[in-house]
Specification:
With 343 residues, the chain is mostly helical. It has twelve helices and two strands, in the order αααββααααααααα. The radius of gyration is 21 Å and the shape is globular.
């Protein structure tokens, strides 16, 4: 294998991980600013201009805080829990196409760490492992509140993964591929999948909220019932890993939503831009367009958090098993009928 190719991909992977971490860090700043705006407050404004250095201050504080450990016989698993949560949050970014390609130093650089034929299966596989990070952390904490929060998180994530997987099947019937790159390419020229699969998009969006433990699906860490939930016993950077994992998952799920249903890096007139402005300029614009879509979904996550009340736990499970799963199956049947009728 070409050594230049290996170096190129290694640099790209490091860059993607760094961007994911930066987006996760500044999502915490954006969360506070959005909450302040919706509640008519100022929000962070001391560390740097507009509070832009607040995430760095928070990171330094977490690193410097004293470590506390519970009296648990599972000390090793207590450390492994947040590591699994953080690792799975970062691993999903490996198959996401951040753009088409760039021509640099005589080489064509593909803006995707790896393009495998089963990208969607890879993402679902990695996401399903993420529940172990929460479950192990809650169980190893030797705390009943943490264990209850971990059990809630596990049952919630498993339940909504079923509906999420079923919502994707209808999309796969239309696109005929599991590759995120091919799905993005098929949506060129505003041929977005959301126009053909609006029900599937809504189901996937709701399930994404549940998978990331965001309000109104944050019952795994509710302060009113379970103190801090599954990370009650965690302190310092181990707790920071759990918090960063949530925001990293929010960033990655927003990217997946943008790619599956809103054209990814495609934008109206992209082919014209390639012909007239060149590949590099057109594709840099494509990267910017993808990040604008991602930021739109991240804002939507935050908007929902500060405006919608939370469910009871029985309501949350009823929504997943009694409404979303049957609705996903009906959507698959209707999609199949439409494909047979119009193709």
């Amino acid at each position: 294998m070409d050594s230049g190719f290996i170096i190129e991909k290694s640099i790209f992977i490091v860059a993607v991980f760094a961007i994911t971490m930066i987006m996760a860090m500044y999502s915490t700043w954006a969360e506070r600013k959005v909450a302040a705006f919706l509640q008519d407050r100022v929000g962070p404004n001391r560390a740097g201009w507009g509070g832009l250095l607040q995430p760095l201050a928070d990171g330094m504080k977490l690193f410097a805080k004293e470590e506390f450990e519970p009296n648990t016989p599972n000390r090793f698993l207590f450390f492994v829990g947040p590591a699994i949560a953080m690792s799975t949050a970062l691993m999903t970014s490996a198959v996401i196409p951040w753009g088409d390609k760039l021509v640099m130093f005589g080489r064509t650089v593909t803006l995707q760490a790896t393009d495998i034929d089963v990208s969607l299966l890879y993402i679902f596989g990695v996401v399903s492992v993420g529940v172990y990070g929460i479950m192990i952390g809650g169980w190893a904490s030797n705390n009943k509140f943490s264990l209850m929060g971990a059990v809630r998180a596990a049952s919630q994530m498993v339940s909504y993964e079923v509906a999420m997987g079923l919502s994707i099947i209808a999309l796969l019937m239309m696109t005929g591929t599991l590759s995120l790159k091919e799905i993005s390419e098929q949506q060129a020229g505003m041929n977005w999948n959301v126009f053909y699969q609006p029900v599937g998009f809504l189901i996937f969006l709701i399930c994404a909220f549940a998978e990331t433990n965001r309000t109104p699906f944050d019952l795994a860490e509710c302060e009113s019932e379970l103190i801090g939930g599954y990370h009650t016993e965690y302190s310092s950077m181990k707790m920071g890993f759990y918090l960063f994992a949530e925001y990293a998952n929010m960033f990655i799920s927003s990217a997946i939503l943008a790619i599956l249903y809103f054209g990814g890096y495609n934008y109206p007139g992209m082919s014209w831009a390639v012909e007239n402005w060149g590949v590099n300029i057109a594709n840099v614009l494509g990267i910017a367009v993808l990040f604008i879509k991602i930021c739109g979904f991240i804002f939507f996550y935050m908007w929902i958090r500060w405006t919608i009340p939370r469910f009871r736990y029985d309501q949350l499970m009823n929504l997943g098993w009694k409404i979303l799963i049957p609705l996903s199956i009906i959507n698959i049947v209707i999609t199949g009928i439409c494909i047979l009728a119009f193709n």
